[in-house]
């Protein structure tokens, strides 16, 4: 193996002929180096089947050797041992990897220092075959009882094998066998093995093959056989198997089967299970209650277990049957008297509640046998049904009676009724939902709801005006009046909405046609007709005479405000008019003043109709609307022409009165005004807390046809329970919702809020009292609905795996206490129960819950899940008939119960109690019920705190044993534990919980073996390129780890090898070496180790350091020379490296060195390396020489100035060329040879101050290692500035003796205040010399002297200065005249 040593360079040399090596200094060699000779004396030693020690003699001039091993004599398929070509300085090579069995060829060649190689030398050797492992257990043909005897296979080890391949098959030909690879000598088959049956158990064959890797395998072992038997079938415990055993709540029980993960249940209605009622798989318990109970029938059931591999046992062999019945029968409460009692309004049906009833079906018929054509069927959730129900849509249109609102008795004939319970949520195709219970005893009654009284005239009474009248019937919307003569012929057949009627038309009844009979029938809004009543009368045949005073003609007698208000169309009458053949009445809304508007005539009213009598009662619905109306009579002659008009008369139709005497109770009996017993219903003003959906009642108003019933979640009726297009209504004065309503049971008000209700009276569909919707203060009554909590909660022993929850049947909870308000028995049964289980007391939602289920029996055992360990909280909520997926129908929660689930711990089998075992040991434990898998953990260092740092493995398995795929390291104490993972994935408690746990702690130790070193002897001397380390093989070892420790403590060489020998491949340094060999099993665990030492002396050291000198001085550019060092070894080659301040100078590897500018003020030295093959390189460093500066820098090309040499222009300097490259340059500009402050750049901008002067520049050059130099550029001249002079006179003509003023301005571009001398002249005569100063800014005024009479020419000369040229003004004419 090749090894790298930091900071060292090793070169191989021959152990036997070191002195014969030629001394050489590393320098350019000859054109072609002579290769070393081919290695000789090839030999092979094979102390065991895994080791081949290949040796040869050292070759003079060789620094390394290359070795190849192959099974091809032409070396065309080289083996990797560890690589195809192995390089070493040693004259021994040991392949570290296993070689395939058979003949092997090997060759070696030497390589010189210039990479020249010798010819190959070839040898051969043979490799033994891999030892075949032998199966050990289970014994051949052994049966394995499940689940306590999982298929744990063991076998003997094979020397040097790194892994084993186990084949398992149902046939001994192993075609398509399952294969498993492990590094251990034991294996628990992880895949499911079908178990067969008791009569035909499944047998399996297995064999094992050893592998050394790289395709080096043994032959397969002999095949062994084992037998897998099935789990036993479960034993059923309840219910008892008997066709006569009846039950209502179905609970199926059986005993657990060890090793079963889950169970399957089948329920059928025949013994051969061809008519399946239910199949439930994956039940993770031994108790099953169907979420929806079964129909009444005879049932058979069976159960089977499934093991951890989901393989089923046989079904239970015996037949188990039971009879599901529902014998409970409701008892009629009202009407329920013997015989045919007569029942008036309000009509209701009431009965007693029964267990399991989600709702009830009422049958109502006119035949005692309940023949289908004569029978109506309606369902309700309560124990009271109130006929007369329907709904009103948003247009005020009455809906046809809905399915469950059509049970109305027929008046005047015998009616029969019975009721039966229904148990939902069971459904059956083609039938009404719910298991059908037993009917109550049939009851008969005669219904007389719309009782007609007060008929007048009657008894043959003789009248002049036949105005018929009667008392309003409760619930009647309209009346049918039929008048017949003495022959039975119909005189009149009319329908009216009022309670009186006068014959219309043009003919007065004749006494000769009498006596007359009249029939009266009331009809409700939903079409129910009363018994028809008959009365008789006779007429005088005369009309009332006109009044004496014409003023009284046609004046009203009735229908005025004095005899009102009226609640329906009043009977109008008036005084007759002489000569009138008939009358008409017109009616309109009340108006004051002229222009009265009258209603038109419609088919159902009598407005503008002919009337033979001075009386009329309108038959239509218009005058049912509240308000003030005006009416007037018109008298007509026989031809129909109006002959007189009566006075306009006002009448008032009263508003519809609000309902009153509101009350609520559980049943109708408590609200029945005809009931003679004590009645204490909830009434307004009382706190009303009802335990179930109540029956609502109010006082019936005979003038009201029907009532709309509003129930809302708020007092303003903005949140109605029923949709606005189906407001409940009834002709009854008692109301309980049926199943056609959206809410046929009212929702719970758990937060304490109330439900508000309002009864809206209606005379007909278009004439109702005020609506309560979206109003304030209209609620007539309210109640809080709080159903009883579920009680009697208890759970099974939490130390078991499955938990059974039970509670009181909700029927029993309700019936246990009467409602305090009325002492009525609470009737509710739960349609279903909702149970929640969670690990937090606040309970989550949805998937956050541990479990949530809806069942319809008062018991629950989770069949598709198991619960996690620890504290669990649970509660139950009854669900009434309204229950649906939206959460409606849910009643009050029970109180929360708690339990602490603590499943039994897994019991460990072996190894325990600190046993000493092999590293291939298998861990075994006892099976647990409901286990889906087991988690097994192993920890080193006797760590009973089970810390992650000491975890060896954590595995999840499906058997009750585990053999780790890699052997465990020796010389350690291990602890192990097992945890069951149940069928729902919940981890159970660990097999050991602490020192006080009675369960055994899994503790064991893996033993170790002693190794023996065979060479070299401890402390013996070894060459640096030739040591060979050997030892004896250790049983169970598949490889060895070798570590060679250098004298300083670092690792000099390491190797992983299958052989029992190791030859380092790199040179070793001088010193004492320690080495250690560790035997490892197939998983790399140590199973034995030993150590030893040897000594090496190898190194090159200088006895005298090299010396450097500077014959030409130490300045930059001088050459340093050296003299070589002396060495402790002969024949040492040398390499050179010059150093600057101790760091290498790139490319400076010769014996001499020329100083450069980089060396200035640096310490220069020389390092020499001595090299000898087989020895460690030696290094030595010379004395130090400091580099000094060279001469001054010189300009080889002088600097120069370019640019615009005028004021404002820019000058540039070219620095020239210097004697050393890349010097550092500085600049100084000069004005007439003097430095210009701040002018130190490569450019200079000329200023006015420079005008008339020379501008130059000095360039200064500097560089490390040299003196500074300077050079001047040739100066350039800057021309003077131009000036302009201007003059003005204060006057061009003056008198003698006076003086004129001259104004002078001198301008110089770029100069604010020019200076200099001015001369004022009169032609050539100088009149005055002035000095211009800066402060004047170029301007000055001068008063001329007195001039002589005559003409003068005045001019001004500016003489300039050093920087500015002079100038003169124009001549100015001045005349001096008197």
UniProtKB/TrEMBL annotation:
Biological process (GO), any one: carbohydrate metabolic process
Residue intervals of the Fibronectin type-III domain: 38-135
Keyword terms, alphabetized: Signal
Gene3D superfamilies: 2.60.40.2700, Immunoglobulins
Secretion signal span: 1-33
Protein name: Fibronectin type-III domain-containing protein
Organism: Nocardioides glacieisoli
């Amino acid at each position: 193996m090749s090894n790298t040593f930091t900071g060292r360079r090793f070169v191989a040399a021959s152990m036997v002929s070191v002195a014969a090596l030629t001394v050489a200094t590393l320098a350019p060699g000859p054109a072609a180096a002579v290769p070393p000779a081919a290695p000789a004396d090839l030999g092979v030693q094979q102390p065991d089947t895994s080791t081949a020690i290949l040796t040869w003699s050292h070759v003079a001039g060789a620094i390394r050797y290359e070795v190849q091993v192959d099974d091809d004599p032409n070396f065309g398929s080289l083996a990797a041992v560890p690589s195809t070509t192995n390089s070493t300085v040693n004259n021994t090579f040991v392949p570290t990897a296993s070689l395939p069995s058979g003949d092997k060829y090997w060759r070696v060649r030497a390589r010189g220092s210039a990479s020249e190689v010798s010819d190959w030398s070839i040898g051969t050797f043979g490799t033994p075959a891999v030892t075949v492992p032998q199966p050990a257990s289970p014994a051949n043909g052994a049966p394995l009882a499940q689940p306590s005897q999982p298929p744990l296979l063991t076998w003997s080890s094979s020397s040097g094998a790194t892994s084993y391949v186990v084949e398992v098959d149902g046939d001994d030909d192993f075609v398509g066998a399952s294969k498993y690879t492990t590094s251990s000598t034991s294996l628990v088959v992880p895949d499911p093995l079908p178990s067969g049956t008791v009569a035909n158990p499944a047998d399996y064959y297995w064999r094992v093959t050893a592998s050394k890797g790289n395709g080096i395998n043994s032959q397969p072992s002999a095949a062994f056989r084992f037998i897998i038997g099935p789990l036993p079938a479960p034993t059923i415990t309840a219910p008892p198997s008997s066709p006569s055993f009846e039950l209502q709540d179905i609970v199926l029980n059986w005993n657990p089967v060890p090793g079963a993960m889950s169970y399957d249940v089948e329920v059928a209605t025949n013994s051969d299970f061809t008519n399946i009622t239910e199949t439930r798989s994956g039940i993770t318990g031994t108790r099953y209650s169907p979420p929806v109970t079964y129909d009444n029938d005879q049932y058979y059931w069976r159960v089977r277990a499934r093991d951890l591999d989901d393989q089923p046992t046989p079904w239970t062999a015996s037949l188990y049957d039971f009879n599901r019945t529902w014998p409970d029968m409701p008892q009629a409460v009202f009407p329920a008297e013997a015989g045919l009692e007569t029942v008036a309004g309000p009509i209701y049906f009431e009965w007693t509640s029964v267990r399991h009833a989600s709702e009830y079906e009422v049958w109502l018929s006119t035949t005692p046998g309940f023949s289908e054509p004569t029978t109506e069927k309606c369902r309700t959730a309560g124990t009271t049904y109130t006929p007369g129900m329907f709904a009103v849509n948003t247009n005020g249109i009455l809906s046809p009676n809905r399915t469950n609102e059509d049970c109305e008795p027929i008046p005047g004939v015998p009616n029969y009724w019975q009721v039966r319970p229904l148990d939902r949520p069971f459904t059956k195709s083609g039938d009404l939902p719910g298991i059908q219970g037993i009917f109550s005893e049939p009851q008969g009654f005669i219904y007389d709801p719309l009782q007609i009284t007060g008929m007048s005239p009657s008894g043959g009474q003789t009248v002049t005006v036949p105005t018929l009248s009667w008392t309003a019937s409760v619930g009647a919307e309209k009346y049918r009046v039929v008048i017949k003569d003495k022959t039975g012929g119909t005189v009149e057949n009319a329908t009216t909405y009022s309670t009186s009627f006068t014959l219309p038309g043009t003919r007065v009844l004749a006494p000769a046609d009498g006596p007359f009979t009249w029939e009266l029938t009331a009809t409700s809004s939903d079409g129910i007709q009363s018994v028809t009543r008959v009365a008789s009368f006779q007429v005088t045949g005369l009309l009332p005479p006109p009044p004496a005073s014409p003023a009284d003609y046609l004046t009203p007698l009735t229908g005025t405000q004095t005899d009102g208000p009226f609640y329906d169309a009043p009977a109008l009458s008036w005084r007759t008019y002489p000569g009138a053949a008939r009358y008409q009445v017109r009616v309109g809304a009340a108006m004051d003043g002229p222009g009265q508007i009258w209603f038109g005539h419609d088919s159902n009213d009598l407005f503008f109709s002919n009337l033979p009598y001075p009386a009329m009662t309108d038959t239509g619905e218009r005058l049912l609307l509240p308000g003030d109306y005006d009416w007037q009579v018109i008298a007509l002659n026989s031809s129909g022409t109006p002959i007189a008009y009566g006075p306009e008369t006002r009448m008032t139709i009263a508003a519809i009165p609000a309902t009153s005497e509101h009350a609520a109770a559980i049943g109708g009996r408590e609200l029945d005004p005809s009931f003679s017993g004590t009645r204490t219903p909830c009434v307004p003003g009382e706190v009303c807390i009802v335990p179930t959906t109540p029956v609502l009642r109010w006082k019936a108003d005979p003038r009201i046809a029907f009532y709309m019933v509003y129930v809302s979640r708020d007092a303003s009726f903005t949140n109605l329970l029923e949709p606005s297009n189906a407001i409940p209504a009834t002709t009854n004065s008692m109301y309980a919702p049926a199943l056609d309503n959206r809410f046929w049971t009212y929702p719970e008000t758990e937060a304490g809020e109330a439900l508000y209700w309002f009864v809206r009276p209606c005379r007909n569909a278009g004439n109702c009292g005020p609506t309560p919707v979206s109003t304030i203060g209209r609620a007539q009554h309210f109640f809080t609905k709080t159903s009883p909590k579920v009680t009697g909660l208890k759970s099974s022993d939490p130390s078991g795996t499955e938990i059974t929850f039970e509670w009181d049947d909700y029927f029993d909870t309700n019936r246990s206490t009467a409602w305090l308000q009325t002492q009525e028995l609470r009737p509710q049964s739960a349609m279903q129960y909702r149970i929640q289980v969670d690990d937090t007391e606040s309970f989550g939602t949805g998937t956050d819950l541990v479990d949530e289920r809806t069942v319809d029996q008062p018991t629950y055992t989770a069949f598709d899940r198991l619960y996690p360990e620890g504290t669990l909280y649970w509660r139950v909520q009854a669900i009434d008939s309204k229950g649906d997926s939206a959460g409606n129908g849910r009643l009050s929660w029970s109180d929360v119960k708690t339990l602490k689930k603590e499943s039994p711990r897994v019991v460990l089998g072996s190894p325990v109690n600190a046993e000493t075992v092999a590293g291939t040991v298998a861990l075994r434990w006892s099976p647990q019920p409901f286990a889906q898998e087991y988690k097994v953990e192993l920890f080193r260092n006797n760590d009973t705190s089970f810390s992650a740092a000491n975890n060896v493995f954590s595995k999840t398995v499906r058997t009750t044993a585990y053999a780790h795929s890699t052997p465990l390291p020796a010389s350690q104490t291990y602890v192990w534990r097992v945890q069951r993972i149940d069928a729902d994935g919940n981890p159970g408690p660990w097999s050991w919980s602490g020192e006080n746990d009675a369960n055994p702690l899994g503790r064991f130790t893996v033993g170790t073996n002693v190794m023996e070193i065979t060479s070299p002897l401890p402390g013996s001397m070894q060459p640096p390129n030739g040591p060979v380390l050997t030892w004896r093989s250790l049983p169970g070892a598949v490889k060895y780890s070798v570590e060679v420790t250098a004298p300083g403590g670092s690792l000099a060489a390491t190797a992983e090898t299958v052989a029992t020998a190791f030859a380092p491949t790199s040179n070793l340094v001088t010193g004492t070496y320690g080495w250690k060999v560790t035997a490892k099993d197939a998983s790399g665990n140590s199973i034995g180790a030993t150590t030893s030492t040897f000594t090496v002396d190898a190194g090159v050291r200088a006895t005298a350091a090299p010396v450097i000198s500077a014959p030409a001085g130490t300045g930059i550019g001088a050459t340093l020379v050296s003299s070589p060092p002396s060495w402790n070894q002969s024949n040492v080659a040398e390499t050179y490296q010059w150093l600057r301040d101790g760091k290498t100078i790139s490319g400076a590897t010769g014996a001499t060195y020329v100083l450069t500018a980089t060396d200035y003020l640096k310490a220069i030295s020389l390092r020499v390396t001595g090299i000898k093959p087989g020895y460690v390189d030696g290094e030595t460093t010379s004395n130090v020489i400091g580099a000094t500066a060279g001469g001054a820098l010189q300009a080889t090309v002088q600097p120069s100035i370019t640019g615009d040499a005028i004021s404002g222009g820019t000058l540039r300097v070219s620095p020239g060329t210097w004697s050393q490259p890349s010097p550092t340059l500085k600049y100084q500009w000069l004005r007439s040879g003097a430095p210009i402050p701040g002018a130190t750049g490569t450019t200079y901008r000329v200023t006015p101050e420079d005008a008339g002067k020379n501008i130059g520049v000095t360039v200064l050059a500097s560089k490390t290692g040299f003196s500074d130099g300077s050079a001047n550029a040739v100066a350039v001249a800057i021309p003077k500035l131009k000036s302009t002079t201007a003059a003005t006179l204060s006057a061009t003509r003056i008198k003698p003796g006076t003086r004129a003023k001259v104004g002078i301005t001198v301008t110089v571009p770029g100069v604010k205040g020019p200076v200099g001398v001015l001369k004022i002249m009169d032609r050539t005569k100088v009149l005055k010399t002035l000095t211009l100063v800066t402060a004047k800014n170029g301007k000055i005024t001068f008063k001329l002297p007195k001039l002589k009479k005559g003409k003068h020419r005045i001019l001004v000369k500016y003489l300039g200065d050093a920087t500015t040229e002079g100038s003169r003004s124009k001549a100015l004419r001045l005349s001096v005249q008197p």
